[in-house]
Structure prediction request, 160 residues.
Amino acid sequence: MTHQPVTTVILIRHGERDDLQPADPDFSDPHLNEAGQARAQHLIHVVGQSGIKAIYTSSFVRTQEMADPLAQHLGLSTIQKDDAPEIKHNILSQHIGQTVLIIGHSNSVPELIMQLGGEDVPVIGEKEFDNLFIVTVFGSEKVSVTKLKYGDQSSSVATE
Prediction:
């Protein structure tokens, strides 16, 4: 039996952003707001010592702003890619056995979890920014998905 290296993929959605204003064509790529910037700083505390070797973002400014504080802390450059199958291929060919962070969106994070082999694919609400998923890829056959929360609670989460 050969030992397959374990690859750990941490996935989050970008932090809180300025409200979208569909009537304004210049506002299709909003920046993080103050809460989102604070969440980006908090990410250093949450995953800054987890051994991340690569950080993937989308081409949208809010994912890049989310990544910047951690990338600077770790001395890494971010990798911009939008295509989920391409991201999966890159991770499982170039970062095998490493820990990688992906900062995506409410639609791309579940798609990437599915691409990596996760079966219980989450639905992320429009106002949810505090989810953190850890996908552990054990070779080509077994995948484990762990769902956590980080930072301040998102406003859409019901309090009971």
